[in-house]
Write a structure and sequence with these properties.
Elements (H helix, E strand, L loop, with lengths): L15 H13 L2 H4 L17 E5 L3 E8 L12 H9 L2 E4 L8 H12 L13 H13 L5 H6 L4 H16 L7 H11 L3 E4 L3 H9 L3 H17 L3 H11 L2 H11 L4 H24 L2 E8 L9 H7 L5 E2 L2
Parallel strand pairs: 2-5, 3-4, 3-5
Antiparallel strand pairs: 1-2, 1-6
Helix pairs in contact: 1-4, 1-7, 4-9, 5-10, 7-10, 11-12, 13-14
Amino acid sequence: MPPSRARAIALTPAHPRRFRLLATAFLLLIGAALAFQAAYAQDTPVAPKPALWKLEDADSTIWLFGTAHNMNPAIRWRTAKMDAAFAEATIFYSEAPVVQADGAMTEPLITEFGINRSNVPFTKKLSAQARKDLKQVIANLGMTEEAISQLEPYRPWLAAGMLSALLGHKKGDDPDASVDKVLWREAVENGKMLGYFETLEQQFSVHGAMTPEEELKYFEDGLRQLIEEPNLIDEITADWQAGRIEALGEKMNRALEGQESLKERMLAKRNHAWAEKIAELMDGSGKVFIAVGAGHFAGSESVQSHLEELGFTVTRIQ
């Protein structure tokens, strides 16, 4: 059955329902935190060439395509080479079944992994500087300080994601325009077999496993980054669109500096597990198009690096 589409809901500043909905939207696109959000709009059209790799043997061909999880619809990302590979594939793999997810699936996961169960709101534990930063970020989003209290029912990692989602919304991004969702819907329309590497619960648990100390630092570091490097996401997006995968990885590492355990869960462990699954697919037969966050293809712990360790030749074709 084709995945259902979420209803469009009008949002107004400082509305409690707004934060609950954005929490759900963020978690459905948790890959945005796991890779990046493409939220900027282009004044001048740029010829796109996002990175694309290929591995094959006598009876199997697999393409690996790095995606952006949250997208401004104005950003161009399709190429003839990518479209041809996608058309040739009979199987489509993504990170998780986010297109098929609805509130009934996500609400229990938000409750399990994202609700603050402490009697003390996490905002009371912020440093003096972080409290100032939070007020500035809220103001920059065009919201009143009342919005801070609406973040308090959530854990810091989820509150950080909600602020990120709000920033993307302000810049014009649209979750339905994400590369992953676009390709999943097209795969359904074209009758391709569908697969994914993780369940929604596994994706939620990446951040949900953070300790109280880790996620408080994550929140505070994120605030400072929004203030000191407001164009970082735009720069990462430009690297993704141009296929500058190593430059993208360097900026992601900077964004995750000091978050080593999260980085291990977010990238290294998942990349290794995905490479093992891709090896299983190569043991079979068929043509598979895999689309996951571009950050998983950067650095020494990338998916393709693990595949090469397993003995496969991975060739970049775009």
